[in-house]
Amino acid sequence: MAERSVVERDATEREAPEDVSAMTPARARALFRQGLRVPTAGWCAGWTQANIVAVPRDLAYDLLLFAQRNPKACPVLDVTDVGAVSTPLFGGDLRTDLPAYVVYRDGEVVDEVTDVRSVWRPDLVTFLLGCSFTFEDALLTAGVPVRHIELGRNVPMFRTSLDCRPAGALHGPLVVSMRPVPASLVATAVRVTSRYPAVHGAPVHVGDPAAIGIRDLDAPDYGDPVPVEPGEVPVFWACGVTPQAAVRASRPPFAIGHAPGHMAITDARDSTYLVP
Amino acid sequence: MAERSVVERDATEREAPEDVSAMTPARARALFRQGLRVPTAGWCAGWTQANIVAVPRDLAYDLLLFAQRNPKACPVLDVTDVGAVSTPLFGGDLRTDLPAYVVYRDGEVVDEVTDVRSVWRPDLVTFLLGCSFTFEDALLTAGVPVRHIELGRNVPMFRTSLDCRPAGALHGPLVVSMRPVPASLVATAVRVTSRYPAVHGAPVHVGDPAAIGIRDLDAPDYGDPVPVEPGEVPVFWACGVTPQAAVRASRPPFAIGHAPGHMAITDARDSTYLVP
Fold first, then answer.
1. Which residues 6+ apart lie within 8 Å of A14 measured at CB?
2. Which class would CATH give B135-238?
3. Which residue among B64, B194, B275 sits closest to A61, beta carbon to beta carbon?
4. What is the CATH number of domain A134-238?
5. Does this chain's domain B4-133+249-273 share its CATH topology with B135-238?
6. Hey, of A64, A170, A192, A274, which one would you mutate to test binding to chain B, going by the most B CBs within 10 A of its CB?
7. Which of B21, B273, B5 is nearest to B150 (CA)?
8. Main EC class of this protein (chains A, B) (predicted)?
């Protein structure tokens, strides 16, 4: 559980200064650039949030292939040119404009920071991957409650016993996010999220955490625990932290990820990723 | 127009020996392995057909990124491991089990053959990309006629004046396939094909060929011409020959593609790529 400290909110996390739901991506990124560190669930409603993972160019093919082979967990929204710190999708600076980052060396977490300029390398390629926060606004609109937003927490995430399909040097387990859903609304949650295949889409698992190797819903591997109330079912979606679990399992020399739940807020509308 | 000879049916193309629509993928691949050379439109109804392009490993990242950046034209269905000649999606031998191949050196077509074992290299990575033939069965079921199947021809394909988003060493124009659709059925054709985003999905252009740089519908850059009858509209879908147009434009040292319209017939059902 060593990496739990990476994502639990700690004393350095501050309250956001204004209504975060109505904020623009540019404003949110400016706050994060100034050092605000906070999970981004519920921020900038209607704007797409993204997972990031940056690897040296010589690992980029394996990572892109890993993403292609595990599309539910790793839906690629954009990839930077080598060394670039922004993309058409993300007008900010990828080194400073997320709330927090995790730095890996040989698969170990060596740092957790709000700015990665000091460890940035010109050979890095950064991947932006879809995030399930994108469909939470649609869930709320459809009347499906989202517990971690209600509680002002980060979403709970778990490493599962399901293996991703490996690619070159990369292998590792599927990571999932969990949302408790009232039994009567599970079908609605499936239907709504199915319409967002580019941001994890439909759940990968409904109910029975043990069947996918999750022993304790109160002890997530990343993020904050949330209670599952009587009459609710734990519903699991593939999670864009999966590449970071692959970094941990496969131990490449260097990688940077976002701190789970502390996402890149992009300039794309959620509706971009809605299919008819 | 030098490459038109690549795809026009010529004297070496033979009639298929049995009902091709009802054939299994394994049976079709066996016939192609024995040397049968024929466009695959209408073959193996319900089974997914794929474009292929094989490049050396050192170009594979650029090609995978090119595909990711141009997903309507280059929907990746599978990628082989380096040097592998089959994948979970395609149980045959990628070097022999397509009806015909095009071999490129420095972007020029240097050979067109039914077997590429003599030029195969151990460093090749083969991409399987979605093909619009996949949704033709659904179009027919919805009552939308498919002219090139009616006429027993290859589909007409055109290089457009639209540029793909480049990636590394690869750039080039979007290639499209064209089907004439009765005006009253254009909306149906859009609706039906929208449900197959992994195999090019909805049209990229409806009507007015000149607007995308197509001067003469009777002179396709690949495949056979088909007539557009009065009351019909030419409808254009992104085409998986696009990577081969990028090879021509970008001139990498070596690449292999399928002969346009002469596809890999996979072991996946079309329904795999149907979204709700």
1. A36, A37, A38
2. alpha beta
3. B64
4. 3.30.2040.10
5. no
6. A64
7. B21
8. lyase
How far is A156 from A258, CA to CA, in rounded Å? 15
Tokens of B241: 């020959």
- Report the gap between the CA of A199 and the closest CA in chain B (Å): 15
What per-residue confidence (pLDDT) applies to A158?
A: 98
Alpha helices in B124-217 (DSSP H): 136-141, 147-150, 186-194
Does domain B4-133+249-273 fall into CATH 3.40.50.1580?
A: no
Q: Does A69 sit within 8 Å of B79, measured CB to CB?
A: yes
The values of phi and psi at residue A129, to 5°, are -120, 145
Between chains, do B64 and A69 touch, taking CB under 8 Å as contact?
A: no
| Residue-wise pLDDT tens digits, A11-30 | 455 555 578 989 999 999 99
Write down the ipTM of this complex: 0.72
Domain boundaries, chain B: 4-133+249-273, 135-238
Q: What is the pLDDT of residues B254-264, one digit of tens each?
A: 999 999 999 99
Place of tokens 């077509």: B109
In chain B, what residues touch A60 (CB-CB under 8 Å)?
A: 61
- What is the arithmetic mean of pLDDT over A255-270? 95
Nearest to B276 among A57, A79, A194 (CB): A194
Other CB atoms closer than 10 Å to residue B49's CB: what's the count?
Answer: 29
Which positions in chain B have a beta carbon within 8 angstroms of at least one beta carbon in chain A?
57, 60-61, 64-65, 68-69, 76, 79, 194, 197, 275-276
pLDDT in tens, B38-93: 999 889 999 999 999 999 999 999 999 999 999 999 999 999 999 999 999 999 99
- What would the CATH number be for the domain defined by A4-131+250-273? 3.40.1640.10
